[in-house]
Design brief:
Strand order of the largest sheet: 3-4-5-6-7-8
Mean pLDDT: 95
CATH topology: Metallo-beta-lactamase, Chain A
Low-confidence stretches: none
CATH architecture: 4-Layer Sandwich
CATH class: Alpha Beta
Number of domains: 1
Bound molecules: zinc ion
Radius of gyration: 18 Å
Number of strands: 16
Structural class: alpha/beta
Strand content: 15-25%
Shape: globular
């Protein structure tokens, strides 16, 4: 299995860092063939993580971020540069790009349009039917499907609960499990609780059957202080919790979901919060905290 480098300091949200302008997209190579991209918190409080994975025949981009405007969020340009650089090292004619999504919320699909006119590019649709059809998932959400990038096989795992067309991706070559907004160090906002519980059981089964190097979601909303999140809407994240979660965390989240089922509200744990909404009180508290957070410095 390839060595994975997840030792990275993500920018906290300032426009400059140590005298240098912070780029709109932070790029980190976790392996030679696996790039983690993060939209700047300064431009979007969502600050989503996107993943670009190279195989011998095609690359897969998972998610297109929270901003459509290429002037603010030059995703196409960044991905083209990364692809050009990779292809210089690994020349291949007709190399394809697949643009897929962890799920279809606005902060994960906003820059799809930047890829609309790109040659050799397929953009996956947004509904569960679109996703199942593209990857060949039979009996959504019961079965997973394999998707081969060329010498690099991805397992595409339906994980509805946060969103009906949500997927996770398990990469056999690195052991990375990409979980979108279903599992990440933040407020796990559950739309369909039984589906969410079933998806967590599936992810635990995947982790029991395969080596999982790290579980990587699409946001960080927890601070390094256990149980403490940054208020929703905050564009300043000093001292964030680390992005990677573990297979053990999956089990903890699954158990927490069982405990939270049928109980509305925010269920707070060390490195995640289960948000069994709508939680009017917690939403009001978040808004108040955001105002205080802004007054107190940022
Ligand atoms: Zn999201």
């Amino acid at each position: 299995m390839n060595e994975v480098d997840l030792d990275v300091r993500w920018y906290a949200g300032a426009r400059s860092y140590r005298g240098n302008t912070v780029p709109p997209i932070q790029v980190h190579a976790a392996t030679e063939n696996t790039i983690i991209l993060r939209q700047s918190i300064a431009d979007s409080f969502e600050a989503p993580f996107l993943y670009l994975m190279f195989g011998a025949d095609r690359a897969l981009l998972l998610d297109t971020g929270a901003t459509a405007d290429a002037g603010i969020f030059p995703l196409r340009e960044t991905v083209d540069e990364l692809l050009d650089g990779w292809l210089r090292q690994h020349p291949k004619a007709g190399y394809e790009l697949v643009v897929a999504h962890s799920h279809a919320h606005g902060d994960h699909v906003a820059a799809d349009g930047q890829f609309a006119d790109r040659a050799l590019t397929r953009v996956v649709g947004h509904t569960a039917d679109d996703v199942a059809g593209f990857f060949g998932v039979a009996h959504w959400p019961r079965n997973a499907a394999l998707f081969d990038l060329g010498g690099r096989v991805l397992e595409v795992i339906p994980t509805p609960g946060h969103h009906p067309s949500a997927i996770a991706i398990y990469d056999q070559s690195t052991g990375l499990l990409l979980t979108g907004d279903s599992v990440y160090p933040g407020r796990l906002d559950v739309l369909d609780f039984p589906a969410f519980q079933a998806s967590l059981r599936t992810l635990c089964e995947i982790a029991a059957a395969h080596p999982v190097t790290a579980v990587l979601g699409a946001h960080i909303e927890m601070s390094a202080q256990p149980g403490r999140d940054f208020p929703r809407g905050s564009t300043w994240h000093p001292d964030e919790a680390p992005l990677p979660l573990t297979a053990l965390d999956l089990q903890t989240i699954s158990d927490a979901a069982t405990a939270a089922a049928g109980r509305r509200g925010a269920h707070r744990y060390r490195n995640f919060i289960i948000w069994n909404g709508p939680c009017r009180w917690e939403t009001a508290v978040q808004f108040g905290r955001l105002l205080l957070f802004r007054v107190s410095g940022r």
